[in-house]
Amino acid sequence: MKFRLDKAASLPYFLSVLETPMSAKTIQSLVQSWETVRFELLNTRISSLNLTIEGSPVDRFVLRLRREMEVRKFRLRPEIYLTDGWGCPDRTPVIGIPFYLADQRLSRLEEEQTDEIEDPRTIMMLLRHEAGHAVNYAYRLWRRSSWAEIFGPFTKPYRDSFRPDRMSRHYVRHIAAFHYGRTYAQKHPDEDFAETFAVWLTPRSEWRRRYQNWPVIRKLLYVDRLMREIRRDAPESLQGRLLRPVDRMNMTLAEHYGKKAERFRRDARGYVDDSLQEAFPASRGQVLRPASALFKRYRDRLVERVIHWSVLTPPEAATLVRKLEARSVALGLSYRPGAEGERLMDVMSLVIALALDYAYTGRLTG
User: Fold this and answer.
1) How far is CA 279 from the centre of its chain?
2) Cβ(276)–Cβ(328) below 8 Å
3) Which residues form the domain of 353?
4) Roughly how many angstroms between the first and final C-alpha of the chain, as a whole number?
5) CB 268 within 8 A of CB 40
6) Bigger pLDDT: 37 or 237?
């Protein structure tokens, strides 16, 4: 059920007909429902999510890795950035972390779409593994003849699939990679070193005792000696191109997952983007004001009108207005300064119409 303000009608006249009582319990659960959030996210470009590691859920794990390397007295502090998956670009001493770990909503979406998500233990295992690659690349360790003697030739062809020997004791057992179990070190000499480094770096791993009777102890002792030798040295390389950094990922989340976002529209009962885009059509001009500024300026008046013409409580009305303000920011909506009165009229109409939509349909979209 949609309500539109006739341009020829006055706002007082429009408001005078909105006397139907509402039966709202709470609007907060509606506008913040997972179905609505999911649909909004799927329609959002990844680069527009403004994701950062600092202050995010994954930040504590990054700090923990930093501390572990500081305890080992490493001079190297590899750059860590958000991208579309775990990894280090070839021979570049930087660590890529999946962007979805920087936001709890994105982690939930990732788990929905892929049926898996990293737990804290796995995150640390992967961070230590990637730190091994970063150390190898920063100090160009693979060029050493001793490295090649212990781990094999770095230039060995890299294959996505391999046949591991699950009983072999010539390799450490660290991260579990898909159907390979804990045999990922067998994939390539570069992965062998990274896995060995990760076991060596892990606090209280007791690698000396655990692997003392395994042939792989030779690799661990080598890494131990090599790290003591190079850890205080300045890295030979810190340069390199970041691979798909999150701020350059311009695809939507739906495109990233190969999904059609529209299939989730029916469940998104608190979706307001379409209505907002109608209220703030695209404008041209050198000087434009953000739509969010209008919401901020008239927030109290908008909340007051919703409370007056509905049975929404003050917190519920405020939640609705904040929802519109937040989505206007996410959508990058704006308007010409000279059109403020017209836009305010549209917004006032929109806010009350949404409240009526909710009263009659239990949705914010008709």
Assistant:
1) 29
2) yes
3) 11-33+269-361
4) 4
5) yes
6) 37
